[in-house]
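Q: I'm a student working through a structural biology exercise. My instructor gave each of us a protein and asked us to get a predicted structure, then write a short paragraph describing it. Mine is G-protein coupled receptors family 1 profile domain-containing protein. I'm not confident about reading structure output yet, so if you can add a plain explanation after the tokens, that would really help. Here is the sequence I was given:
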Amino acid sequence: MSRYNVIVTQRRAWAAVALCWLVSFLTGLVPMAGWHRKPPGNISTTLIQCQFTNVMRMDYMVYFNFFVWVVVPLTVMIGLYAEIFRVICRQLNRRAEATCDSSKYYRKELKLAKSLVLVLFLFALCWLPLHIMNCIVFFCPSCNVPKTAFYVGIFMSHINSALNPLVYAFRIQRFRDTLIHIMHRFVLCRNSSAIPIQHLPGPITEKTQVQ
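A: Happy to help. First, here is the predicted structure for G-protein coupled receptors family 1 profile domain-containing protein. I'll explain a few features afterward.
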């Protein structure tokens, strides 16, 4: 625990978040840098139909967007979570044999790891169908993928962003309390005084981090 607090400081956490946003921003600019479909003929006289497939190249969607930014991170995350579960289960077995009170801490860590695995599973469930259909269209042009299937895949990929807060709220108490507070304050337009005190998010202390 002390080693974690030394390595994961607030400054390093903010730097990691900023780096993720910067990489995402630069990755999103790749099609604008030239990896896209060019309109045929003279652009001033050609009417461009506003469709995603008429602008984005499928090799970009498959090789760059799917293989590089989905398959590789997903594989790495699965490996990391498998190692995390292995370490936590080993520690729980050792603490159980030694009848140590710290086993409670590892059980909470295991619960948090399960929540993150659920988020990872929902990400794969929502995004992989669309990417798999893109691969089918790219590697097998003669194969017919129904447009309805594409629409369902696009809908699933968009709804994934809405599922993550619900998962966190369902699995993590502090996140659930904060979400309830936001709903009362900004959606239902109720004052904070009308919210039960147990639902108000408090300051993050060393004790609450362990919890």
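A: Here are two points you could use in your paragraph. DSSP finds eight helices and no strands in the chain. The CA atoms of residues 16 and 22 lie 10 Å apart. It's a good idea to check both against the output above yourself.
Q: Great, thank you!
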